[in-house]
Design a protein that fits this description.
With about 325 residues, this protein is α/β, with parallel strands linked by helices. Helices cover about 40% and strands about 20% of the residues. Strand 8 (about 235), helix 10 (about 240-250) and strand 9 form a beta-alpha-beta unit. The N and C termini lie far apart (about 60 Å).
């Protein structure tokens, strides 16, 4: 079965031009319109009526683009976003990209064609120049440009908080354990806050990073444990990173928290079934999700938002690893 992309390729035009011809919207030159109609006839293309209906009336669909549905933070975020949308009479389309830039661009193109009312998106890939702003969008943890508002936790203060809590717990030489994304993300401020607070307090720190995504987990943690045997505190960029470190440290005969104090970031462990219960900087996931939806719906209604980046306060949640 032919697609709208096939029609666009045969006619030598953009997908958006084919869409305008099909829906009889926007300005299209007569000669171009004829080429598109000829391509439609040649391919026996049947337009997607659902997509056409989206374009011809106000949509009640909001898309959520996630890099993973398996990660507990993203799952919790999706839960509260869907719940807030349901309260407002909107429905959710979930797009799981697997963190692949080509898949993210495919979804953006699909959503552009189907004219969803708005998008909440999380991406850590360098796709800014390919993301259009025709549809209202809210970004989580990533500031694209002036037209795309960003919702994030106060990552910088979270890093400062983690350093203070490690020192309070008795750490003399703490380390930051993380990874460097291919493009700038607000999550990078976790390290910056940690390092700056250490300087302010006169505490020596180690920063250990590799490019994100980590290619070999075993080698990553093995190198860290081998190179930095004298550290007595770890602030991990995420709870998952902290949990993996604790697992590797145990195999190396390192006790947590007796030998090394550990603090994560996210707060995804919310049940006593987890052991040891991780000390962490808890992100206000529900507040972030509901704020993202409320701001997005304001943009859908044509309102201008007051700020470009909305940072929401975090809290330290003490567990059994400090």
């Amino acid at each position: 079965m032919s697609s709208i992309k096939d029609v666009a390729n045969l006619a030598g035009v953009a997908v958006g031009t084919v869409s305008r011809v099909i829906n009889n919207t926007g300005a299209v030159k007569p000669a171009t319109r004829d080429k598109v109609k000829a391509a439609i006839e040649a391919l026996n293309y049947v337009p997607n009526e659902v997509a056409r209906n989206f374009k011809m009336q106000k949509s009640n669909m909001i898309a959520l683009l996630l890099p993973s549905i398996w990660h507990p933070f993203f799952s919790e975020l999706a839960y509260y976003i869907e719940d807030e949308l349901d309260r407002e009479g909107f429905k959710l389309i979930l797009c799981n990209s697997g963190g692949k830039p080509e898949k993210e661009l495919y979804y953006f193109d699909m959503l552009e064609q189907n004219k969803v009312a708005g998008i909440v998106g999380i991406t850590y890939n360098d796709i800014e120049n390919s993301v259009k702003t025709d549809i209202p969008m809210i970004s989580i943890d990533r500031h694209f440009n002036n037209k795309i508002t960003c919702i994030t936790s106060d990552n910088f203060e979270g890093g400062r908080m983690a350093l203070r809590e490690l020192v309070k717990a008795g750490s003399k030489k703490p380390a930051f354990l993380g990874s460097v994304p291919s493009d700038y993300s607000e999550t990078m401020l976790r390290k910056e806050g940690f390092v700056q607070e250490a300087k302010a307090l006169g505490v020596p720190v180690v920063v250990y990073e590799e490019p994100d995504p980590i290619k070999d987990d075993d080698q990553y943690y093995s190198n860290f444990l081998t190179q930095h045997k004298d550290i007595d505190g770890v602030f991990a960029i995420t709870d998952m990173t902290a949990a993996k470190y604790i697992e590797r440290a145990k195999l190396a005969g390192i006790r947590v928290p007796e030998d090394v104090k550990v603090i994560g970031y996210d707060g995804i462990q919310d049940h006593s079934f987890f052991h040891p219960l991780l000390s962490t900087i808890r992100q206000p996931v529900e507040e972030m999700a509901r704020t993202a939806v409320r701001l997005l719906l304001k943009k859908v209604d044509g309102e201008t938002l007051d700020g470009e980046i909305y940072r929401i306060s975090v809290k330290y949640r003490e567990g059994e690893t400090t």
